Amino acid sequence: MTDKTVLSDLPAGWTGGAPDADAFHAMAQAALATLPDVFLQHIRDVVIAIEEFADDATLTSLDIEHPYDLTGLYEGRPLTERSIDHSGGMPDRVTLYRIPILVEWIEGGERLDWLVRHVLIHEIGHHFGFSDDDMHALEDMA
């Protein structure tokens, strides 16, 4: 199988120039489809969004100086902090930042769909109550 054969099966936006937001969303949906059903039932209401960069207010709130340093963000109440007293409100949201992910992809040489999957799963980990340190420790054990 040649590289051309592999690429021909990808949705529009995954080939040629930098993939657009629709292609990123398709990659995120494909990544979600690979998760075990036991997880899917807990993330079905999580909104997946694609933005070019985090805005200044978001970067400031996270004490991040450069917009290229944030590839994804989970916003919501982790499952570990919920109770029946907490209802209503906005749905949980995972935002993938397209340009920083593209820069990391170019610099790292990893497959873009794998990188999108990695960032998405990392952010979904926050939905399940894992901290960044927890997830890095799990990655190191794998």
Description:
- This protein is mainly alpha-helical and 142 residues long.
- The chain has seven helices and three strands.
- Strands 1-3-2 form a three-stranded mixed β-sheet.
- The longest helix is centred in the last third of the chain and has 16 residues, at 112-127.
- The chain is globular, with a radius of gyration of 16 Å.
Précis, in short:
The chain is mainly alpha-helical. The protein has seven helices and three strands, in the order αααβαββααα.
Task: Please give the structural blueprint.
Blueprint: H1 3-8, H2 21-33, H3 37-43, E1 47-51, H4 56-61, E2 72-75, E3 93-97, H5 98-108, H6 112-127, H7 132-141
Helix pairs in contact: 2-6, 5-6
Task: List the main descriptive attributes of the protein structure presented here.
7 helices, mainly alpha, 3 strands, 142 residues
